[in-house]
Amino acid sequence: MKYILSILFAVVLSLQAKALPLDEPTPFEKFYKKQMKVTPGLFTVYQDGSNYFLEIPASTLNTDLLVIGDIARGFANNIAQSSGVIRFGVGNGNVLNVTKEVYKEETSADFNQGFEELVQKSNLTPVSYVIPVVARGKDKKSYIIELTHELIEGGNLFSFKDFSDLSSSDPARSGVQEVKTSGEGVVFSVLRTQTVPGNSVNGSKAVDKAVAFVLNLGLQRLPVSKMKVRESDPRIGFATVAYNDFGKYPYGMRNVKVITKWNLSVRPADQQKYNAGVLVTPAKAITVYIDKNTPALFLPYVKQGIAQWNAAFEKAGFKEVLVLAKGENENWLSAGKIQIKWGGGASDVPVNLLSDPRTGEIYTAKMNISDQVVNDLLPSYFTKCSMKDPRVLKDLYNPEVRGEIMRWKVAQAMGEVLGMVPNLHGSAAYTSAQLRSGNWLKQHSFSSSVTDDTQFNFLVQPEDDVAVTDLMPRVSAYDELAIGWAYRVFADRNAEKKSLASLKPSNAALMFLEENKSDPFTRRGDVSSDHLEAAELAMNNLMRYYPQVEKVSAEMKGGDDDWRKFKLLSSAYQKNFQLYTDNVASYIGGISLRPVLRNYNEVPVVYTTKKDQKKAMALLNNWFFSGVPSWMQNKRMNLENNESEDTKMQNSMQDLLRKLISPEVLNNLITAEHEMGNQAYTSLDLFEDLDRYVFKDFDSVNPLNEHTKLMQSKFIFDLADATVKNNFAAGLSDSSEVIHFYFVRTIKHIKELSEQHQDPKAKALYQMLREKVEKGMNQKKS
């Protein structure tokens, strides 16, 4: 059926093409004019005034071409959505058909060799769009097409229609600035300008805005030979492409995932040395262009971040894989190149990749860096590491520290450029004791992967003998393992499998885990295999240094007369407090999913222990449920902000308590109980802890402070709301059953307190809560 529909679709397109009122292509002799400017190359360009024409040689028809639209200058980092692998083919009605490869089926050589021809014949790639042919080439075999509209306004070939600032270019204010050719391609440098409608804010007059971008729009022929694919392995985290392979099983089909990576190969002359374990340079290195506008301060650190990965490539048997380009020749985005562009103002380091949908081969990549990324991270670095790094105590914007942060961010982004996905387990690989050891950190770093999203080693104590260079992540053990496996050229599939045979789940440093919001050990911002101990150490630092922030900020270089640095650092300390408590709270209902493979691991799920969850609740009581810690109270911050510390704490606590009674957490606790019995931390254990810490064991004697009143009031309403959302009428589930049980039990206790509490104010509060909850429940039921 799919085959029939594909044929019908192609027929419709063919009929549409035939219906176009196209003239016969002009002979070259009539097309060519003496005043035309000719840029010769594989794809020769003819310029006639403001019109541009491209010659498509017959040798490039039905071959893979890489089309790229890249923002070279301008406040954005987008790559054209139309970028990717295309093919030109001769269509009906004097047009060239343009097809984009959609790769869903394949036949490998393992079994069913006869299927390969059948699969190829049964697949039909639909035509994506057509381009009219305006003339034939001088040799009468090539085809000349006009690109003026495609270049200036954007059509199908170089389309930025998903980016509003480039969706409707004005031809009167746009134009081609330069045409450049290389051995296998051509690139146009194009200015596109348009006016973006303004938005009215609070009734003010909308003001339109003119925007301009310089684009590099290129077309390049790709090599005929394809990269040998590497099937994905759940123990190593790489981005993947998937297809159905009819050659993996006799008379069957299997869905196959192959990893995305660059095509590194060994020269035949080096094969013997490579097999003997001698490092060799790849047949084709990856060229890295660093933007010439990169400030001199950051340039050496950017190079160092790249160089860290060259060391990792040695595990794959290669040296000098990433080669820094000299000069600006051919610095546009094209196959075999990485561009590191300066500017864009993004709060992180965005990466764009173009890869082959059939093999996963990465053709080219772009990374955008700016000082905005560094400056945004400086307050976080100060609050986590200033006790060990006096440089930022004196100057928040210390040049060396800024450079070191840039080095880390470039190294982190390079992991994505090389095809990897973040291994968020990397920061949970080592113990707290190891992460406080200077010798350990010097050898291993504090995360086993630089791709993890954890920023800095925040559990180091002032008395620990740790160098400041070890407070930031770097390429480490897991990264080397991943690159070694993905990029090594193995003799055969068996050798590839043997390379990972020694991996064991007990080696946490080499473990990859997919991100899972229920897994405490794939959190963004955690450190150490024991989040509870890490949080206690981090809170010690917070308690010691947060009260000093007003004094420290005033003594910094440049002073702080307007309290700007004080507010910036105080806000960062508060975010850290939230981070540490969130890390602790992640233990409640925590489950960790592990890859299951024969001779590797047979335990698919690891549950957080009852002991750890009980301790987590006790810590949350100390830092949250018992009120704002005295050392978090900052009079100056309360004066400078519209929101007090108490209000912020109440809002954070409300979010936490909502999470603890969410269906996700409750279902995880119920599942753990089914698997572990009385060894598990159960939903009943959670409810007992909530009774103890939130409702103070429903004590009917002691009066309530303001913090406890607000906490209990917000929680009882959230509990009622969660119960309604998990109503039996919406379908029976384990979480709806336990939340309903807890709500009924809690309301019973509230009723008792409304009648028996010895403190008149507390008694009145519980009466009010009872009446409001009952009234609200009745309204929601009706």
UniProtKB/TrEMBL annotation:
Domain DUF5118: 25-74
All residue ranges annotated as the DUF5117 domain in the record: 83-266
Record has Glycoprotein as a keyword: no
Pfam families: DUF4953 (PF16313), DUF5117 (PF17148), DUF5118 (PF17162)
Keywords for the protein's UniProt record, in alphabetical order: Signal
Keyword Signal: yes
Domain EcxA zinc-binding: 399-699
Signal peptide region: 1-19
Database matches in PANTHER family: PEPTIDASE M1A AND M12B (PTHR38478), ZINC DEPENDENT METALLOPROTEASE DOMAIN LIPOPROTEIN (PTHR38478:SF1)
The protein's name: DUF5117 domain-containing protein
Organism the protein comes from: Pedobacter alluvionis
